[in-house]
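Researcher: Please predict.
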Amino acid sequence: MRVAPGRGQVLIAVVMFALTMVAGSIDAITFLGLGHVFAALATGNVLLLGFGVGGTAGTPIARPAEALGAFAAGVVLAHVLIVRRLGRSRRWFLATLGGEAALLAGTGAWVLAGNGTARLPLHGAGPTVLLLAVTMGWHSRVVDEARIPDMPTTVLQTSLVKAITDLLPFRSAAEPAPRLTRMRRMATVAGIFLGGVGGALLHRLGVGPALLGVAGFEAAVAVLYSRTPRLGPAGQGGPSVGQGAGEG
């Protein structure tokens, strides 16, 4: 299916917005259901680790340190797959989205089979956090390779600053940001917020069902992406949005 370049840009921005919601949801589920630790927000884990090292009472050191290590492992895993296996394929982004959804679904199914909808005990929460942190490290490496401007999916500080300045009536010497750029910035902020809301609501069902719900959502995102122009081959100077739109 051939998609007009302008519409393709918007569709890919919608896909990235959805992936931002995925990251926000996973962090909400992890933080609320698996202890005060994040799977995607590495900045939060570094801060928690700093609080623990600084001797703050009640702040663990092991859990954020383990999450950071697992996150790094996910980054390495995705990097090897992208560079060694998928680097010349226009389907690389679709394949990695499917892989992420499969990891989330597998983790959710494992939790559901072993613990049902009950709150996980500490000995079960640890491995679940590690699996989710690996998945979010994978997620972050894939998003970095996609190189969609202003849509990092897991952090919002820079996007928030730029979104605020976009609304101001007085500007710097730079030209006003194009409409699509402003939309991407706002979508990043809104996506993390809505993902947090969604994750908090899903968390009430139990960690396993919540993860399966997020995995199903991401699978739907992958289907949506399959109908957009393909991102160019990984590692070749960023996405080639609008090219290869007719490739199945």
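Model: Confidence is low (pLDDT under 50) at residues 1-5, 236-248.
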